[in-house]
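Researcher: First entry.
Model:
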Amino acid sequence: MTTPRVFIIRHGETEWSLNGRHTGTTELPLTANGEKRIRATGQALVGDDRLIVPSQLAHIYVSPRKRAQRTLELLNLGCTDSFPWQEEQQDNSLNTRTNAQAQVDEDIREWDYGDYEGLTSATIREQRDKNGDGSWDIWRDGCPGGEYVE
């Protein structure tokens, strides 16, 4: 029996991740380069002789964000079933490599940056300094209008 493993894969590049803007709830597509890099990552990491062996996958969880779902599609895991967000049933019979089903899970969605959505850390620190709020650490201070660590 093989040792269970967990793979956590971050979504591909978006315009905001490219320039350091915090992205939580805003739906942004992957850049062309982001799609290209995820395809290359899939080719490098996914296969019977690679780190991620599709036939050994038991569960696939994905964020409800479209950028995460597109990243999963581009990895080319060869899922038997269509992904839950695909409106039309896909015929995956020629590319089936795993029986694991993808499940959209709100619990692994990106952080809600609230008022800081779309801002860089430098801009947030400048705003806080101007307002007399002091330094900013997301884990200590959270995000007004968004999430805080509990």
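Researcher: Second entry.
Model:
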Amino acid sequence: MDEMRRLVDKYPKGYAGFNEKSRGDVDVESIKLGRLQVKPREVTLTCKESEVEAHDYMATDHKSTLASQGYVILPSSLSPTELSSLRSACHTARSLAESGQWPHLRTLPKQFPPWSSDPSNGIWGIQHLLHPDMPSRDVFAASYFNDTIIGTIKQLLDCKQDDLVMELYNLLVRPTREFELRWHRDDIPPSASAEEEERRLKEPAWHAQWNLALYDDDSLIVVPGTHERARTDKERTADPYEKEMPGQLVVGLKAGDVVFYNNNILHRGVYDSGKERMTLHGSVGHVAGGNARARNVLQHGVGDWVDRCRFDELEGQMRERAEGMRRRLVEMGRVEGRDIGFSQED
């Protein structure tokens, strides 16, 4: 229970791993051993040393959890071997980026694309892990197209494999100096009126987006439920970097955990330059997304290289899956074209 108390003390405004109405399934034996472990199921906690009341749901409830809260956590999605391999690949990618040998970056202090290819002011992300020129691209591709991720996405989007479209796969890293993102929705600008927000939020979300932590990561902060409603007056007039937004929740991930979240939930990032961070940040689309998804994906420059991208290093059904998803992205790019603008501006 000491770990539970520590989290409550550290995050009095809310922590995804523990709060009074937390979305997660608590491992009772882990609590007895002093380790709080969260699984992606709904739970009600009775805060007594000897009692944890849990309402258990099957794993198929991920979709309803995402729909109601705007995010859902899947714990321990990587084997120790997969975790080690991905960490090694990410360290190599970061070294290339910081030395100027990889031009596809997220550079400080800019939050939204387009970004500079000059790393001299520091970076907070590395773009295009599926690019054919990326070293260890096979490792990244295997983690993007794997059964766990794709199976969860098919469940969340209620679709078949042939409906899926390859989108983005990037790496979020520890910045070289303290850095924070503003409160935002990924595809709705802060200038949107309440009426426009409500209209846009009612549109189908033709994609799934996730963060896969390779080291413990508590950088993501969300306001649960805001993916279903317009901002309140207080949220609309708050400081862009407001540290105590009403109802905010820190999404705490252990190494190997993955969180799927609605990209139009009100959220921000707070990055600690003194704490290691390597978090894979991906999205997969649905063919029905059309122009709405084209803007969000092609603004990142994927269309510049996807034509020459092949996945011969993958085997069997995974390779077939990858090639099909890549082909559908190419077709979407041909239809939508390149001059589609950007979702947000700095």
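Model: Note on the second entry: Confidence is low (pLDDT under 50) at residues 1-8, 18-59, 338-343.
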